[in-house]
Amino acid sequence: MNIGAWMCGVLVIPFAIVGVLFGIFKEKATNFVAGFNTFSEKEQDLYDKVAISSDIRNQCLIWSALMLVGTALSLVISQYVAIPTFIIWLFLFFKDSHIDPYKAFEKYLLK
């Protein structure tokens, strides 16, 4: 049993599903974005919801592709390929994470 392939493979489908849902529902899906859903309706109208949704979609699809590659390489090379795969994913995840929701979404402000 290749635990590395399982660890990466389990995450492929949820990331892909979330990416597809954000692609289908576009600005309606921003209700599920952590931090953004805490803003009032007036505050939310100040932001580009389509851009937020497309960025979340792209992030999730990239994460899904990364985990798919990690799964394949774990099966072909070694189960330990899952370790750098998760390190890359953690870097990508924390690169776009912010504690302050206003700072997290400031690049989406409508001008």
From TrEMBL:
Keywords: Membrane, Transmembrane, Transmembrane helix. It comes from the Bacteria. Pfam families: DUF3784. The chain crosses the membrane at residues 5-25, 61-94. The keyword Transmembrane applies. InterPro entries: UCP037672. This is DUF3784 domain-containing protein.
